[in-house]
Structures are given as C-alpha cells and as structure tokens.
Amino acid sequence: MEAAVFLAPRVTKARRSGVPVLALALGAFALAGCDAHIPMPESALLKPQPPPRCEAKADSGARKQPAAPADGDALKKLDYEAQCYRHAEMIARNRLGKLQESIQESARAAAKRSASVNP
Fold first, then answer.
1. Are 56 and 80 in contact (CB under 8 A)?
2. What pLDDT, in 10s, does the model give residues 10-69?
3. 40 Cβ contact list (under 8 Å, min separation 6)
4. How far is 10 from 50, CA to CA, in rounded Å?
5. Distance CA 56, CA 59 (A)
6. I need a surface site. Which of 39, 46, 51, 115 has the fewest CB within 10 A?
7. Distance between CA atoms of 36 and 112, rounded to whole angstroms?
8. Can you give the residue ranges of every domain in the chain?
9. Ramachandran region of residue 46, left (φ > 0), alpha (ψ -120 to 50) or beta?
10. What is the tens place of the pLDDT at every residue in 93-113?
11. What is the rounded distance in angstroms from the CA atom of residue 4 to the CA atom of residue 112?
C-alpha cells in the first residue's frame, strides 16, 4: 500500500496579508447585526447627593439679637427652612427620575442585545 502524500498549497505573501483583513471583515459583519453599545447612566447621577443646607443663618451683623426671638422672626425662619427642604426634595426627585430613566434605557438595550444573541 502506498502512503498518501498531502501537499499543502503554496501560500504567497499576498494571501497571508489578506487573512487578517478577512478575519476583521467577518468580525465586523458578525457584529453588524447586534447592538454592542449599552448606555450607562451619567457618572454625576451615580455620585451621592450632599444633604441640603437649609438651616437659617444667624445675623452676624451689628444689631444685637434679643434673648427670645420674636414670633415673626421664628415664623420667617421656619418658612425659609420649609421652602429650602421642599426645593431640595424637588431636586432629589428630579435627579432620581433621570437616574431611573437612564437605567431603564440600559435595561432595554441589554434585553435587546440578549434577544439578538439568544434568539
């Protein structure tokens, strides 16, 4: 019985340089159908929010404060603090809403990508 002799085709320099290009083209073609980008929330939305600074500031001015504040001054202070805390809550809720929208967008993109990879 004769031994079979396999001769490899002769690979030229031109063919060898085309192999990486072909691999790159095939990879790009494979990725063209899937959405590889998953949006992430803005980094500013992920940082902890500082607590509100709503304490009414005392006058450092020239006039001397009475020992017991007048009822009007106490009401003004309470009104200022209440408005400040309401405003801080609106800011926090707005920021939370933006973060939730961003995370929902990321989840939709991830689900879309998962569905395209695993049909």
1. yes
2. 555 544 444 454 454 445 444 445 545 888 888 888 899 999 999 877 655 545 555 555
3. 102, 106
4. 70
5. 9
6. 51
7. 10
8. 69-119
9. alpha
10. 999 999 999 999 999 998 888
11. 52
Residue 10: per-residue pLDDT: 55
Cα of 82 vs its chain's centroid, Å? 32
Rounded distance, CA 105 to CA 99, Å? Answer: 10
Q: What SS3 class is residue 58?
A: coil
Compute the distance between CA of residue 24 and CA of residue 33 in angstroms, rounded to an integer.
Answer: 15
Q: How far apart are CA 6 and CA 100, in angstroms?
A: 63
**Token pair belonging to 35:** 């959405």
pTM of the model: 0.55
CA distances from 17 to 29, 52, 77 (A): 19, 63, 78
Which residue, chain included where needed, has tokens 């995370």?
Answer: 103
